[in-house]
Amino acid sequence: MTRSPKTVVPVLCYHSVGDVRRDGTLRWSVSPGDFDEQMALIRERGRTPMTVSGYAAALRGLAPLPPRPVLITFDDGFPDLAETALPMLRRHGLAATAYVIATRVGVAPPPDGDPSLDWDQLRELRSYGVEIGSHSRSHRALDCLRPTELHQEIAGSRQVLQDGTGTAVRSFAYPYGYHSTAVRTAVHAAGYSSACAVKNALSHPDDDVLAIARVLIERDTGVAGIAALLDGTGWPLAWRGERLRTRGWRAYRRARHLVHGARPRLSQPTL
Ligand SMILES: [Zn+2]
């Protein structure tokens, strides 16, 4: 039975696919050779690739969940998604979802900032069938923002990306994985039908469609790590709601935000 709670759904969260990254971010950049091997393994294991919106429809009971599903997602919209990863995804016939930061698309990065996909690349990804989702307007920690700022980051980014790509944007990914009840409510109100968190846990048919669990794939995850993920070993099943330590960490960050107006620096590893 496909909706058995024992069905585990690995949702992989990649960032960059390349070998040249600035200090501190190489950890989140998988080498092209490793990425190709990982995609080949997913194919060999007979996994059914889905976009996040396809999976969300199954979570909502609107469509059947195919056997042995797997999801491949990319955060932050690095250009190597189109230049390096896309040809490999195509060769292996794998669907994917890309979460991009609306105000960075096609804009030259600051001296210490990361490059971004441009609009032509986004349309190319879209034409292959890669789902384009929003990773907010400017990649701030949303659970520390005021309602008007939240609206700009969540609803505003959706509008920008829909205008730029000419297609509906239906999924959202929380910057740094941070979300709260207010953030999830704003995502729903803005018209998104799904959202991805991180959690470093395996998703399953009873997962929260507005906080889908993903596992961060790092440079040293390797093929063995992906194999373990596909086997459903080494990671817990996703839980509902927030863990106490998550709430405590948010209280600390909110206090910092009030005192310093601090936002995460662009140069810190983006998640
Ligand atoms: Zn991010």
Automatic annotation (TrEMBL):
The primary site where this protein sits is secreted
Q: State the InterPro entries in the record.
A: Glyco_hydro/deAcase_b/a-brl, NODB_dom, Polysacch_Deacetylase
**Do you know which CDD domains this protein is assigned to?**
CE4_NodB_like_5s_6s (cd10918)
Is Signal set as a keyword in this record?
A: yes
Statement: the UniProt record of this protein carries the keyword rRNA-binding: no
**Chain ranges of the NodB homology domain:** 68-271
List UniProt keywords, sorted A-Z: Signal
Read off the PROSITE patterns from this record.
NODB
- Which SUPFAM superfamilies does this entry report, sorted A to Z? Glycoside hydrolase/deacetylase
Q: Where in the cell is it found?
A: Secreted
In Swiss-Prot or TrEMBL terms, this protein is called NodB homology domain-containing protein
Which species is listed as the source?
Micromonospora coerulea
